[in-house]
Amino acid sequence: MALPPVVGGPKNRSMNQTMTATDPGLAPPDPTVVQVTDLRRRYGGSGGFEAVRGVSFSVGRGELFALLGTNGAGKTSTLELVEGLDRPSGGTVRVFGRDPYRDRAAVRSRTGVMLQEGGFPADLTVAETARMWAGTLPDPQPVDRVLELVDLRHRTRTQVKQLSGGERRRLDLAMAILGRPDVLFLDEPTTGLDPESRHNTWQLVRALLVDGITVLLTTHYLAEAAELADRLAIMHRGRIVTAGTVDEVVATHPARIGFALPDGLDPAELPALPGAQPPPVGAPAATGGRLTLYTDALQPALTALLGWANGRGLELAGLDARAASLEEAFLAVAQSGGSVEEEVR
Amino acid sequence: MTAPATTTSGGGLVRRLGLGPVSLRRIGALGRAEMALLLRNRTAAATALLLPLATVALFATFVTADGHVSTGALLATTMFGFLLLYVVYYNLVTTYVARREERVLKRLRTGVVTDVEILVGTAVPALALALAQVLLTVVAATVFFGLPVPVNLPLLLVAMLAGCAVFVLLAVASSGVTRTVETAQITTMPVLILSMIGSGVTGSVDSLPDGLARVFQMLPLTPVLELVRLGWVGTTGADAPRDFVGVLAEAGRPALIVLLWLAVGVSATRRWFRWDTRR
Questions:
Q1: Parallel, antiparallel, or unpaired: how do β-strands A183-187 and A111-114 relate?
Q2: Fewer beta carbons within 10 angstroms: which end of chain A, N or C?
Q3: To the nearest whole angstrom, how far is the Cα of B107 from the nearest Cα of chain A?
Q4: Residue A141 in contact with partner chain B when CB distance is under 8 A
């Protein structure tokens, strides 16, 4: 995927503003692009299922905010309300200070959307799809250029139904950026992509962020959130359970030290380690002769453990010390009630 | 950089319905894509193109058999009924359902294009084909089958346009209760059967008891075809044909029924139409 130096960005951006994106010291306070307050969405009337139960977050200009969560956590339901596809059953959504549902005409020309699946007639070719979509936009970028960005230039005569799943996602992304949006809403943008295409998409999204475009995305891939997100929120059963930067979210979870328990050693003989934490819910402390300890002070705890083992002449086989990761934070949320299913890939 | 969208104001009624300004450029972009899809879908293309042509051929045999001009004209106008029922109504029910299930409608709604533009743009090829076949039929029937030149061509065309509007609205509403393209064969039957019986497409209304005939006159296709027959041959049945102005006096009642069906269509659309697949 060839990236030209400047990806077609939002309208009316001055040179100065573009520079501030890479120089935070000169940046003006970031205006809020998306503001979600106590959002609720209920399906099927008052007796129905409440998929979104009081969600609040905000996304600043030029920021990438990721919504993570288990299946049915309410990510897509939330995103659709932010896109203005439906009226919330409670709470408010503001995009550039406007209601995206009621003020549709004013908001739509500034947003680019990628739905979770589908969206284009199977029998149209890539070129016909792009021409149709461009025909509905007030100020589209050149179609060829956008298809080039997602590496689909060679597929213009192919029907959508003959594209691979990954190619369809890339076509969808191309259509989302065709109208030079100021903010992008991407629902699982890299699902079904091979690793190379996924990295190319990440590269494209990063280039858009440098241009000052704001991105709100949902994803199943923790690596994607860790790679791209300035801030993220982990949703579970319609609520945001944890939110913040990747470091902030990870910092709320303990680090792990694991090793094979030496023969004949009673775990009670181990020394008390600095910052020791009880095992997280659902995580066993010992399995198959392997012991896992949790601490929020990894280096002192590890130093103490190794000093103790040296003093007793013990070898800790299979020693493994690891700071908390986004995966652990995610699993902790997912296991706080309900199964993880195939969420972590 | 492209030219700004051509925006036309749809007038008072459109605004009162909350429809707002309409962009012909955006409708054109959708219509063009839909036309490519229609021609690429063999079943839909056959329904839209071959069925009406076969109907014309059938009528041609009627005309040559008894040589009665008026009967031939009445039969030819029922061809317009088939156009409205199959090229417009049935074809569009399957199209709206297909686009909904592919999430095309939902995807379009994330963009700048308005709801009315999406529905109209999707209907463009069906409407264009129907109206083109109306004109072809009038020309062919006049030139080749010796049918009279329409008494009031404007009335004929207005009647067909109003008929298109009624059956587009009914198609939009019917698509809402149709889960898949295949089940459209079942969900379209009430409208198709009632329209055919009531309009005389399958037989003369005159042979029915008075009360039943009056009920049938209220069905959606009947008044449209009455207006078409008035516009073409100047009479709806056995009465002597009227002239250009004379037919307008008789057009009032069916026109009123058509307007009622437009209102029913708008309200049915609001009630049943779905933009998204069921969850």
A1: parallel
A2: C
A3: 5
A4: no
Query: What is the identity of the amino acid at B99?
Result: R
CA distance linking residue B112 with residue A307, whole number of Å: 66
For the entire predicted model, the pTM comes to: 0.83
A180-215 pLDDT, tens digit per residue, is 999 999 999 998 889 999 999 999 999 999 999 999
Superfamily of domain A31-249: P-loop containing nucleotide triphosphate hydrolases (3.40.50.300)
CB pairs A-B closer than 8 Å: 90
Option in B4, B36, B40 nearest A138 (CB): B4
User: B240: which DSSP letter?
Assistant: P
Judging contacts by C-beta atoms under 8 Å, the chain B residues touching residue A122 are 102
Nearest C-alpha of chain B: how many angstroms from A59? 19
Q: To which residue do tokens 């691979």 refer?
A: A164
Q: Where are the domains of chain B?
A: 22-272
In the predicted model, is pLDDT for residue B241 greater than 90?
no
Amino acid at A78: T
In whole angstroms, what is the distance from residue A246 CA to residue A65 CA? 11
Distance CA A155, CA B101 (A): 24
Compare CB distances from B107 to A115, A134, A137 and report the shortest one's residue.
A115
Q: Which two tokens stand for residue A50?
A: 């409440």
How far apart are the C-alpha atoms of B161 and B174, rounded to whole Å? Answer: 20
Q: What is the pLDDT of residue A125?
A: 97
- Hey, which residues does B151 pair with through a beta bridge? none
Q: Which residues make Cβ contacts (< 8 Å) with residue A338, sequence separation at least 6? A: A70, A236, A237
What does the alpha-carbon distance between residue A165 and residue B188 come to, in Å, rounded to a whole number? 34
User: Which site among B6, B95, B102 would you substitute to test the A interface, given the most A Cβ atoms closer than 10 Å to its Cβ?
Assistant: B102
Identify from A80, A136, A157, A187 which residue to disrupt to test chain B contact, counting B C-beta atoms within 10 A and taking the largest count. Answer: A136
Range picked from A17-31, A98-112, A268-282 for highest mean pLDDT: A98-112
Q: Where are the domains of chain A?
A: 31-249, 254-323
CB neighbourhood size of B87 (10 A) = 27
Question: Between chains, do B32 and A117 touch, taking CB under 8 Å as contact?
Answer: no
A95 DSSP β-pair partners? A34, A98
**How far apart are alpha carbons B96 and B90 in whole angstroms?**
10
Taking chain A, what is the end-to-end CA distance rounded to the nearest angstrom?
A: 24
Residue holding tokens 């009360």?
B211
Tokens matching residue B224: 């449209």
Tens-place pLDDT, residues A147-177: 999 999 999 999 999 999 889 999 999 999 9
CA distance A153 to chain B (A): 20
Give the whole-angstrom CA distance, residue A224 versus residue B54.
58
Check CB contact of A72 with chain B, cutoff 8 Å.
no
**Measured torsion, CA atoms of residues A36, A38, A39, A45, in degrees rounded to the nearest 10:** -160
A142 — contact with chain B (CB < 8 Å)?
A: no
- The phi and psi torsions of A120 (rounded to 5 degrees) equal -135, 140
Query: How far off is chain B from A325, nearest CA to CA, in Å?
Result: 34
Residue B59 is predicted with a pLDDT of 62
Q: Quick check: helix, strand or coil at residue A233?
A: strand
Chain A CA closest to residue B111: A108
pLDDT of B5 higher than 50: no
Please name the helix (run of DSSP H) or strand (run of DSSP E) that holds residue B124, with its range, or none: helix B115-143
